[in-house]
Amino acid sequence: MRSFFFLIGLLVMTASANAQAVWLSYSYAVAPENEPAFAATIDQFTKTEAFKKFNGSMIFTLNAFNGANAETHGLQVIYKSMEDYEKLMGEIRNDPDFTAFRQGLSQNSTFENESLFQWVTGFGESPSTGNRAYLAQFNMVTDPMGYVGAIGANMSKPFMKDMPGGFDIWQVLVGGAPGLTHVVVYNYDALSDGFNFVNTSVKNPEFTKFIGSLNKFRKPLGQTATYGLATYGPMTPADMRQ
Fold this sequence. Notes:
This protein is α+β, with helices and mostly antiparallel strands. The chain has helices spanning 2-14, 35-45, 82-92, 96-107, 144-154, 191-201, 205-213, and strands spanning 22-29, 57-65, 73-79, 110-124, 133-141, 166-174, 182-188, 218-232. It has a single domain, classed as 2-Layer Sandwich (Alpha-Beta Plaits), CATH 3.30.70.100. It is globular and about 55 Å long. This is NIPSNAP domain-containing protein.
């Protein structure tokens, strides 16, 4: 436990002064026949007075490839800070519209899991909209400062100049699989953009050396791919980098 909090402290040191954005990820298993009602529940809530108090970003996602996991859809809710989340929940926790929203989700899905993450840093393009393709890589990072530093030191190298989209690194605060400490979320116009870049780059010895060097700092645990279906809220994904 002591080493865990030591790692947390190291990671905080690598983040910028404003790196306080938090991401709450909620996952659901939605049967095909329930998808319209599930989506309508979300859309209806975003038109309420309760939702007008929300100053973050909420992205409704569809899982494209998820291995053996049962999740089919997700709500990715990003707040500028943990304080913003707590303030909003204090105001709407017992609001009838918020209650109806949660009931509607429950009636049309099976809740699978939730996790809380804190933003660390980002590289490349920041998505201007949440309606993108996302590839999330799950890692157990043993040296946060070394990991972020190694990535930052290589992003300006020629072999990375054609990287499509961008990516953000998030630290796990609550939830997640055993051993999971960080999630790297890549954003693309299309998943094929990311796959094609990697397929081309692995032919470059400098690129493969860079990727191999990250193994000193982290162990990959798996990855999933999702598509953004709809985005709500005034905060853009780019805001969390400011």
